[in-house]
Specification:
The chain is 46% helix and 12% strand. It is built from eleven helices and seven strands. The chain has a seven-stranded mixed sheet, sandwiched between helices. Helix 4 runs antiparallel to helix 10 and helix 5 packs across helix 7. The radius of gyration is 20 Å and the shape is globular.
Length: 311
């Protein structure tokens, strides 16, 4: 192969990468001015699986406020205290506003860091309700406050008031959890359980929270890194067209995108890598290097909007 061809290949590759990232950023529908929560199972999930999403949604021009709720400290190797600190550093690298936007709910009895044990969806729904249910509560904490909050929600249902929540969007894993980890898959079921709880007795109302799940792929696509972006982009465009067509006949209803796609350019990709290599130092075993170099989830995310029917 001639020298000029060898030099042209990486130039064409990086040019196509940057152009595609710019096109997705400017042409693909996204979220603006939303209160968003990323629900994860362990510190480092935000960097290993959701970095393109977090980097994409925390762009200042979008006006979003993104928080992370992590349901364990990842204490399987007795490193929970260390990992709580690491997720704060990672979140700062990925663009969150402050440490206060990272919530680690550390209750190993309810949510053990385990490769063999799934978490109870009802318990996850209860935690989500305690953090993000929107109801007037007096100052203070404890069971008395929570009981009044529940009473307020029941009263609202009785009066036929519209359902309300303290957030607009909830993002988490799908039922397969990308890696098959039972803790990951449990988050999807817990998120659905919370939305059903929120909408109990509210048939006919629009759910105030949109649930987006990170799409799991087969093992080939999982390790295609940037090369998976073209197929993902086609799927996202087709789904956006279907959503637009469906929304055309539903005037007066808000309609968020049916699918979100985030493709990091080279600079953002390096930030995602740094969130692992510089923040989550305790987790950087040899096989992590393979993941951060080859996994599509370090550079591209596609999120599907869950379409739930409430009765």
């Amino acid at each position: 192969m001639e020298l000029h061809v060898c030099l042209a290949i990486p130039i064409i590759f990086f040019t196509a990468w940057l152009y595609t990232a710019y096109t997705i950023q400017t042409r693909i529908p996204t979220l603006r001015n939303k209160a968003i929560v990323l629900l994860i199972a362990h510190p480092d999930d935000e960097a290993m699986f959701f970095a393109p999403t977090v980097l994409g949604l925390t762009r200042p021009d979008l006006g979003n406020h993104l928080k992370i709720l992590c349901l364990s400290s990842g204490n399987a190797d007795s490193l929970g205290a260390t990992r709580k600190t690491e997720i704060l550093s990672s979140a700062a690298i990925l663009g969150l506003r402050s440490d206060a936007d990272v919530l680690v709910y550390d209750n190993p009895d309810l949510f053990p860091d385990s490769m063999t044990r799934a978490w109870d969806p009802a318990a996850i729904a209860s935690v989500l309700a305690s953090f993000f249910a929107k109801a007037p509560t007096p100052a203070g904490s404890g069971s008395g406050s929570r009981r009044k909050q529940a009473d307020t929600a029941d009263s609202a249902r009785t009066r036929g008031e519209a359902p309300a929540a303290g957030i607009d969007v909830l993002i988490t894993f799908d039922r397969d959890g990308v890696s098959g980890h039972p803790n990951h898959g449990s988050l999807y079921h817990g998120a659905v359980a919370w939305l059903r709880l929120l909408m109990r007795g509210k048939a006919g109302w629009e759910c105030p929270v949109a649930l987006y799940r990170l799409a799991s792929t087969n093992v080939v696509r999982k390790y295609m890194a940037l090369l998976d972006a073209p197929l993902t982009m086609v799927l996202c465009v087709l789904d956006s067209m279907r959503t637009a067509a469906a929304a055309a006949g539903k005037k007066g209803q808000r309609e968020m995108p049916g699918r979100l796609m985030f493709l990091s350019d080279f600079t953002l990709y390096r930030r995602a890598q740094r969130a692992m290599t510089r923040a989550h130092v305790s987790q950087m075993r040899w096989f992590r290097w393979g993941w951060i170099c080859l996994s599509r989830y370090m550079v591209v995310n596609d999120l599907e909007k869950e379409r739930l029917v409430f009765r």
